[in-house]
Write a structure and sequence with these properties.
Layout: H1 14-33, E1 37-38, E2 44-46, H2 48-51, E3 64-66, E4 72-75, H3 80-90, E5 98-107, E6 119-128, H4 133-149, E7 156-162, H5 163-172, H6 177-188, H7 195-206, H8 208-218, H9 236-254, E8 259-261, E9 275-281, E10 289-293, H10 297-300, E11 308-314, H11 315-324, E12 334-340, H12 346-358, E13 363-365, H13 373-382, E14 385-391, H14 393-398, E15 400-405, E16 410-415, H15 419-427
Parallel strand pairs: 1-5, 7-8, 12-13, 12-14
Antiparallel strand pairs: 2-4, 3-4, 5-6, 6-11, 7-9, 9-10, 10-11, 14-15, 15-16
Helix pairs in contact: 1-4, 1-11, 4-9, 5-9, 6-7, 7-8
The protein binds one RNA strand of 76 nucleotides through helix 13.
Length: 428
RNA sequence: GCCGGGGUGGGGCAGCCUGGCAGCCUGGGGGCCUGUGGAGCCCCAGACCCGGGUUCAAAUCCCGGCCCCGGCCCCA
């Protein structure tokens, strides 16, 4: 009975994982250089952790089930809620600001599509207890620098907005929770559907005048943020948010990021209160990462009121982009494969291999047995070994090893006592 | 939820319209090679998603089902 992976889940194979771990390590290095330290939270969380900050409909896109005690539990769909929860409980023990990062798998019950899986990998960071513009800019820089360090810096672009601008307008109009997120959803559609369609949608929700006022926001895409000012006249909170947007924008530009103001960018999450951003790379049609400021979340989980900002990177998508763009991680040959002329030397080869391994050198031999020397050499070549040692009666008798370098295709004799030094020199 | 494209050896495909011995590439095992030449030549193993129907005959035509991929919606 053949059994395969569940829909939307994948097996990750060595060639893929090699690239994946490389990207992951670059992200970790970026985070650590900025002073972030790793935390790990549970894969399974109480459903309420996610319920509180979104409507009920998010349950559809999550793995939710009952455990044996009848509790409603969920596979984590993201990390931010967990870290905010963690901070709410433990934050008092740490000097502020707290800087945490994570790497892990997350789960979403969506219909799988290109680069959309039901289990995928995120690396991200949260900065809690700081609200300066530089805090947001630093979080953005983590995305920017990761893309740069995996070779995607060329066409990288950060789209930036501040949801406080539009949220303040809506609040001034008395537009409430459910209605608010419907408005935001429409705005988010800009760039995906016809402008006139969005206009119609907003007018339906808010009326002609207010709708067109909102549309006035989007026209300054990419321009100087101060151009938004006239549009916002009369909305106190919006003006403040705009000022913050300008400062974050300037801070990000000051450290060399390519940033584009995108007033219709609102992101799906309801918990964002200020800065929001997404990271893109030219020719890749979806965001490789994103994040923003969520100043209310920690308090919602019972912690002290705490300003916070964070990001997450879609590792799978970045790996895909790296491959797509041909930045390609180079695979290097390594280690030693010991090939034997005849089966009766296998024990001797095994002893040699184990001693090499003990000395810290990657080594292997043909464990199938009964294979010609040419087959063993071919195997060593095709599976990426750097050296082949040909072990036969002649070598044993003379106390030497015949070592072939599969990179240069050169071959030479090394005396038994000199093997370790020779290999170490070559493999380093 | 809606709309497309597909299910044929391990992977990727052709064959289907026009029913008649199931083919190619790659990967796997082996030989040429009685001691290694990244190659070449040769050999071997391995498949028509499931269930009905039509037919002398079904991978091919018809009906039903299941599954996969992609697009839309959504996307924490």
């Amino acid at each position: 009975m053949p059994v395969r992976t569940l829909r939307g889940f994948r097996d990750l194979l060595p060639n893929y994982l090699e690239d994946f771990r490389w990207v992951e390590s670059r992200a970790r290095a970026v985070f650590e250089r900025a002073g972030y330290r790793e935390v790990l939270t549970p894969t399974v969380e109480p459903f309420e952790l996610y319920e509180e900050k979104e409507g009920e409909q998010i349950e559809e896109s999550m793995f939710v089930f009952e455990d044996k005690a009848g509790r409603r539990v969920a596979l984590r769909p993201e990390f931010t809620a967990s870290l905010a929860r963690l901070f709410a409980f433990m934050g008092g023990e740490f000097k502020l600001p707290v800087k945490w990062y994570y790497v892990g798998n997350v789960f979403r019950y969506d219909e799988p599509q290109r680069m959309r899986y039901r289990e995928f990998w995120q690396a991200g960071a949260e900065l809690m207890g700081a609200s300066t513009p530089e805090s947001d800019a630093e979080i953005m820089s983590l995305a920017w620098n990761t893309l740069r360090d995996v070779g995607l810096g060329e066409g990288a672009l950060i789209r930036l907005n501040n949801v406080g601008i539009v949220k303040s307008m809506l609040e001034a109009w008395g537009v409430s929770g459910e209605m608010q997120s419907r408005v935001l959803t429409w705005m988010d559609k800009l760039g995906k559907v016809e402008r006139s369609e969005v206009e119609r949608g907003l007018a339906e929700l808010l009326g002609e005048e207010r709708g067109s006022r909102l549309m006035g926001l989007v026209d300054v895409e990419g321009e100087d943020p101060s151009e938004l000012e006239p549009v916002l006249r009369g909305f106190e909170g919006s003006v403040e948010a705009l000022k913050n947007l300008e400062e974050v924008y300037d801070a990000a530009r000051a450290v060399g990021m390519r940033v584009r103001l995108t007033p219709f960018l609102v992101r799906g999450l309801a918990y964002y209160t200020g800065t929001v951003f997404e990271a893109f790379v030219e020719d890749i049609p979806y965001a490789l990462g994103g994040g923003g400021r969520y100043d209310g979340l920690v308090a919602e989980y019972g912690g002290p009121p705490t300003p916070a900002t964070g990001l997450s990177l879609g590792l799978d998508r970045i790996v895909d982009a790296v491959r797509e763009k041909g930045v390609r991680v180079k695979r290097e040959r390594s280690g030693v494969f010991v090939a034997v002329v005849s089966d009766d030397l296998r024990r001797r080869a095994f002893v040699l291999v184990e001693s090499l391994r003990a000395a810290g050198i990657r080594a292997d031999l043909d464990l199938r047995g009964g294979r010609s020397l040419s087959k063993q050499a071919e195997y060593a070549d095709r599976t990426g070994w750097r050296y082949v040692i040909f072990l036969g009666p002649k070598e044993v008798e003379r106390g030497v090893y015949v070592v072939k370098d599969l990179e240069s295709w050169e071959q030479l004799e090394v005396p038994e006592g000199g093997l370790l030094d020779f290999l170490r020199a070559g493999l380093d």
